[in-house]
Every structure is written in structure tokens, then in C-alpha cells.
Amino acid sequence: MRLVIALAALAAASSSAVAAGYPVTVRSCDREVTFEAAPQRAISNDVNLTEMMLALGLSDRMVGYTGVSGWKTLDETLRQGVAELPELSPEYPSKEVLLGADADFYFAGWNYGMRLGGEVTPETLAEFDIAVYELSESCIHVMDKPKASMDDLYNDLLNLGQIFDVSERAELLVENYKIALEDYQAGLPALPEPVSVFVYDSGEAKPFTAGQYGMPTALIEAAGGRNIMDDVESSWVEIGWEPVIERNPEVVVIVNYGDVTAEQKIDFMKSNPAFAAIPAVANDRFVVLEYVEATPGPRNIAAVQRLAEAFRE
């Protein structure tokens, strides 16, 4: 019932939001960014950041998005969401792409459309009056931050709400997510101890996985598990297979995107004798999350629910 009430309130707020006063200043990683007015020609990079913009009803403030089809992460849900918005670049955009679209705002992150020392950064875009808001999960690349939590998602939505003068909408959306998650967790059977989980993103010679600052750590913990790499001080990182074997995960979470399918990643692990004794492999306990579910975004709550079900099978 609480979810229904929140949805109704969200709809009401969408039609009656009161304009916030400007200038508005928000924290973006280690910077304070001030907006004199709501952006009108925004661009988002990557599927999860674009879905945050869509969840806030900001498609009419956007001139396009970037960095989706190059990684084969455009599914039917997002295809319908972006509707007529063009994809301006299949991978990370160049500065020329952003300038060519006459953008006034870029929602990206470190390793989500920007690279340290690259040509597209908050500093390089500032001279063209393109403001940048950085994904909270990615801030670990430029500053110290707490371990990943659901607050990373909520913080980004609330800050976007301030930037675009839709704070009431953002606050109700976040409240709705919190209620949905709390209600779901309250009904879960208790586990004797957290389920040990390995996140397998990609790579055969060395696996690419999520450390303590990556969103999967927050999703796994919210579902009743523990990321076996939660002592790795990184967000997304390449490691060796040895610690995976040593730490014996009970469940492997496959991140599905790109040219190598989830089935191929599972087959690789099941066919390698070195992994045969890992409980997750021996007991065929694999869970597939789409890229858009495993990275910060509106599909995180559903991802927690699917993980929680898998942890209790």
C-alpha cells in the first residue's frame, strides 16, 4: 500500500512541482558545481545514467545520449524510454560530439564517459559552458569515499532533481525506492550468515570484477550476501583468479553485456577444471544481472530482489 501511495504522490508532484530558486549548488565528487538555471540541452552517457534521467522525466531537457550501443546494452526498455532521442556516440563521446550537439550539461562518471587525463573532463568542458555532474559511484577515482551503498544511487537522483528543478519529483522517487526495498527486505527469510558472492564481469585470463566501491557490493549486501572482493579498494577492477578460488564463493553473479554472452561466461567457468571445486560452480549457482542492473540506476531495486531470491534457493 505504501508503494501505491508513493506512486500517486509522485504523479501529483510531477504536475505541480514548484520551481526552485537558482542559483543551485550541488556536490559532484570533490567539486561544488553551481547552476544559474536548469540545463536545457543535457547529454547523459551510458545506459544506467540515461535511465536515471528518464526516471526523473527529463527527456525533454535532453538532446541525446552516448555510450550505449557500443557496449550492446540498449535493451527494449531503454529503447522505448529514449524514444526519439538520438545516440550521439556509440561509445565515449569526444569533445567535438558534445560541442556539436550544443550541450549545456553532461551527466557522466569516471570510466562512465570520462577518463582521468582524457579530453572530456569537467575542466576541459568548463571553457565551453558545459557543466558536468559526476556519477557518485565513480568518485573513488578522484577522491576518498565510503563503501558503495544504495545511497550512491539516491544521492545522484536527488542532486539531479536540484539541478533540473524537479526536487519534489526526485525526493518522491527516492522515497518510493526506499519503501520498496524496505518492504521487500522485511519479508525475506533470515539467512544463517551472508552468502559469499563473486561478481564476474568479464575476462578469461584475469577476471574483471567489482570491489568495495562498485555498486554490486551494495546490491549483494542489501540482498543478504557479501562480495568476496569487498576488501579490494576499487570500484571495478581486474584481479587474478587465485583469490576467487581461495575464497570459494557460493554464488557467482554474471554481469551480462557486450560480445561475450552470460551463457559463454558460465560455460567458461564450468568447463575450467581449476574452478570445479568452487561451490558456486559445483552447485551451478549462477545469477545473471544485466549491465544496467549491476550499475547504479533505477533497476537496482529489482536487482536486489532477484539476488535475494537466488541467495535463498
Report on the structure:
Residues 41-313 form the Fe/B12 periplasmic-binding domain. It comes from Candidatus Devosia phytovorans. This is ABC transporter substrate-binding protein. The structure is a single chain. By secondary structure, the protein is of the alpha/beta class. It contains 13 helices and 14 strands. The chain has helices at 2-16, 47-55, 76-82, 95-100, 122-126, 150-163, 167-186, 215-223, 242-247, 262-271, 279-282, 291-294, 300-311; strands spanning 24-28, 31-35, 42-45, 62-66, 87-89, 105-110, 113-114, 131-134, 195-200, 208-210, 225-227, 236-238, 251-256, 286-290. Helix 1 (2-16) runs antiparallel to helix 7, helix 6 (150-163) packs antiparallel against helix 7 and helix 8 packs across helix 13. The longest helix is centred in the middle third of the chain and has 20 residues, at 167-186. The protein is globular. Mean pLDDT is 93; it is low at 1-19.
Helix-strand layout with pairing:
Elements: H1 2-16, E1 24-28, E2 31-35, E3 42-45, H2 47-55, E4 62-66, H3 76-82, E5 87-89, H4 95-100, E6 105-110, E7 113-114, H5 122-126, E8 131-134, H6 150-163, H7 167-186, E9 195-200, E10 208-210, H8 215-223, E11 225-227, E12 236-238, H9 242-247, E13 251-256, H10 262-271, H11 279-282, E14 286-290, H12 291-294, H13 300-311
Parallel strand pairs: 3-4, 3-6, 4-5, 6-7, 6-8, 9-11, 9-13, 13-14
Antiparallel strand pairs: 1-2, 10-12
Helix pairs in contact: 1-7, 6-7, 8-13
